[in-house]
């Protein structure tokens, strides 16, 4: 398996880090976990195209985890790519319909591209045949506990505390061959995530707050620090730990160094903070 970091940031606009998005190559397929703002541009920068993606899994539907969904679907459609398979919690179907449905936000654009004679010529010049189809990814709404075995890779999931009851929030475990990748999504500490992460070759865990950084009591419960995440990962028997979802102020050199030092003290050398476009072999 291979991980390419496409977005390691937060909702804050930031040239250094796009919002959440992670490409995993496993079992001959390309699987995208989350698709926040800027992720499609990073996908292109990494040498891939939207048409390369086989399926997408959303941990939850905060905007910084799905803002580029419309761009991904539209771009794959423009390229005549294969039908995307999209998995995520409710109300994923409703969001899709609001964008791509017959009365959705992009309906006028799509009708113009499908029905306008010059656009039809462009479609045929690209190799398109017959009437141009409407974008129609295969959407599956899922709940915590969802599992899937394709024969090439296996996925399992659990609920994680983050924005309930407003959003369903999940973490994912992906297994292919003898390797295991776990992605926390945005997660507060919980037993279900520890079970999901047990023995993982690589755990990618969000980090929204640094050690010693003040937080309101409710927020503190949901935002473990690098030291707390490292202790969690060590307890779960994780082999490699990567932190992501860094905010602008957390990248100040002294703060970033402090976060890495905290990881090393508790977890050891095989832990760090990721950057956009980094690649990790699992």
Features:
282 residues, single chain, seven-stranded mixed sheet, 10 helices, Metallo-beta-lactamase, Chain A, alpha/beta
What does this structure look like?
The protein contains 10 helices and 14 strands. The chain has one domain: Ribonuclease Z/Hydroxyacylglutathione hydrolase-like (Metallo-beta-lactamase, Chain A, 4-Layer Sandwich), CATH 3.60.15. The chain is an alpha/beta fold and 282 residues long. The strands form 2 sheets. It has a 7-stranded mixed β-sheet. The mean pLDDT is 96. Helix 9 packs parallel to helix 10.
- Terminal CA distance reads 5 Å
Mean pLDDT: 96
* Strand content range: 15-25%
Helix and strand element order: EEEHEHHEHHHEEEEEHEHHEHEE
Detail the poorly predicted runs: none
Got a strand count? 14
Principal-axis shape equals elongated
User: Major sheet: size, sense and barrel closure?
Assistant: 7 strands, mixed
**How many domains make up the coordinates?**
1
SS field, number of helical segments: 10
CATH topology: Metallo-beta-lactamase, Chain A
What strand order characterises the main sheet?
A: 6-5-4-3-2-1-14
Main structural class: alpha/beta
Quaternary organization:
single chain
CATH superfamily: Ribonuclease Z/Hydroxyacylglutathione hydrolase-like
The CATH level-2 architecture is identified as: 4-Layer Sandwich
Helix percentage: 25-40%
The CATH top-level class label: Alpha Beta
What's the Cα radius of gyration? 19 Å
């Amino acid at each position: 398996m291979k991980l390419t970091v496409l977005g390691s940031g937060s909702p804050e606009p930031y040239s250094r880090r796009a919002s959440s998005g992670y490409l995993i190559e496993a079992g001959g397929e390309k699987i995208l976990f989350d698709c926040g703002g800027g992720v499609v541009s990073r996908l292109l920068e990494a040498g891939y195209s939207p048409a390369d993606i086989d399926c997408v899994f959303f941990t939850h539907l905060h905007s910084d985890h799905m803002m580029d969904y419309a761009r991904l679907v539209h771009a794959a459609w423009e390229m005549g790519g294969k039908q995307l398979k999209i998995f995520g919690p409710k109300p994923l179907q409703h969001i899709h319909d609001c964008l791509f449905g017959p009365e959705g936000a992009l309906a006028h654009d799509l009708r113009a591209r499908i029905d306008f004679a010059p656009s039809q010529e462009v479609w045929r010049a690209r190799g398109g045949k017959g009437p141009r189809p409407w974008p129609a990814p295969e959407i599956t709404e899922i709940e915590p506990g969802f599992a899937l075995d394709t024969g090439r890779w296996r996925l399992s999931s659990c609920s994680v505390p983050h924005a309930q009851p407003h959003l369903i929030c999940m973490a994912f475990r992906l297994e292919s061959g003898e390797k295991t990748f776990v992605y926390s999504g945005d997660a507060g500490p919980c037993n279900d995530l520890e079970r999901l992460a047990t023995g993982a070759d690589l755990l990618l865990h969000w980090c929204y707050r640094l050690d010693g950084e003040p937080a309101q009591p409710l927020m503190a419960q949901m935002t473990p620090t690098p030291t707390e995440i490292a202790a969690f990962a060590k307890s779960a028997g994780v082999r490699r730990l990567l932190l992501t979802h860094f905010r602008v102020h957390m990248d100040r050199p002294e703060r970033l160094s402090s976060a890495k030092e905290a990881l090393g003290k508790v977890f050891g050398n095989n832990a760090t903070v990721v950057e956009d476009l980094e690649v990790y072999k699992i």
